[in-house]
Structures are given as structure tokens and as C-alpha cells.
Amino acid sequence: MKRILSMIAMLGLTGLGLSLTAAAQNQPGQAQPGATQQQQQPADAQPARAFEGKITKAGDKLVLRDSATRQAYQLDDQDKAKQFEGKTVKVTATMDPDTNTLHVVDIAPSEK
What we know:
Elements: H1 2-25, E1 49-58, E2 61-66, E3 72-75, H2 78-82, E4 88-96, E5 101-109
């Protein structure tokens, strides 16, 4: 008889635990296990924008020399830039103002 009561008590506690787990998972604002969440950008992240200029060498690195401002920007994707060396291009990128580096999204020949 004690064994049966112990088993009933264990089943009751297990059921209660499952109910609490299910309730906690359905709370608004909490992530569901296995659900993918969108990555949030840092508050200081800048949107990608277009930069136009010529891809040139600066030492052993390729840079974009902006035609409007004559500013030189470092490029984080040297492989993508290599095929456009010496050409006027439009670079879509985000800029890190601390390092003056363009984080390249795309490089295409300029229409100018």
C-alpha cells in the first residue's frame, strides 16, 4: 500500500512539474527552446550605404579612395576588392568610424 501511495505521489509531482514547465515556456517575451531568434544589432550599428571611388594600393593593402571627399577607406574584404584594383567602383558597406574601415557588403563597377 505504501508503494502505491508513493507511486501516486511521484506521478502527481511529475505532472505538476510538467505543468509548470509548460506554463513557463508559454510566457510572453521568453524564447521557446529550439526557436530561432533574430540577432539584434548593437545600438551604434550603422546601416550599409554607398561609397564611390577608386580601388588603389596603400602599402600592401587595397583601399577605396572616395572620389568626392578624397578620403581613403580601408577595406575588410581584400579578396573582393582585388578584382577591381585600379577601377572606379561603388562599394556598399558599413563604416567603422573608429578604424576608418569599410565592412564590405558588395562592390560593383561605378556607373560614372
